[in-house]
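cron nightly-structures :: item 1 of 1
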Amino acid sequence: MARDSKSNEPRKKGGLGRGIEALFEETVPEPEAEEVHEISLDEIRPNPYQPRKTFDDKSLEELSASIKDNGVFQPIIVRKSINGYEIIAGERRFRASKLAGQTTVPAIIRKFDESEMMEVAVLENLQREDLTPLEEAQAYEMLQKNLGLTQEEVSKRMGKSRPYIANYLRLLTLPNKTKRLLQHGELSMGQARTLLGLKNKDKIDSLAKRVVKEGMPVRKVEALVASLNAKKTRKKVSQKSAFIRASESRLSEKFGSSVNISESKKGKGHLSIDFASEEELNRILDILGVDLDD
């Protein structure tokens, strides 16, 4: 497995689907099999499908210092484009080389199509655990939209469970102010997921701000959300049986949306699932296994 030039650190593996893992392994060539070129940094552009939006400045400076002293141990991998080259893997080394004042970087040229570019960009960052929760969610969404994949297909390609993918995609339904808190690390994945359970979606931003300000642990956020939801629906909930309330709770967790079950005296009833956008509706249909194209 490839190593970054910084401290020869190995990329982390674990739980990844063999299909995409094999694809990534193919990007790490045997030294005798492929030629290493010194390519001008001015001719290279980042992977257009790079999901990571922010790079740690301190980490880049450390890698840059290492490159100044020792050079780049592991060549980056690029593909030829209409104008220059695009990075397949190794953007940190590319950025650190520029920071170190280098004019060229060792690179191996490979032939990759758009689909492979997307998958490798996501996989490389997941293996390094460099993505924020929001960036990871956006990466899965990108794979879905650009490759026309279902959540099930994304989960198989990435070697993740379907609920895992669904939980990350739910983060994209957060309001923008809360997304920014999550992106900057002020709000954790657990806190953000809990806030999604708030029935009054207009209150999420203000509650997120309070969670950050008070440094609330996830359990306290859960209790607060449950309390606020109870105030809104106390009268209705009190009229429901324990079985109905438990069913609503389990279904809400499964779909990541508010679920309401009403029942009549004759045992009949009505079940409704809330959604805030067409995208969220598509997510729910996907969980239900409904394919409107059939």
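cron nightly-structures :: done
Residues 1-32 have pLDDT under 50 and may be disordered.
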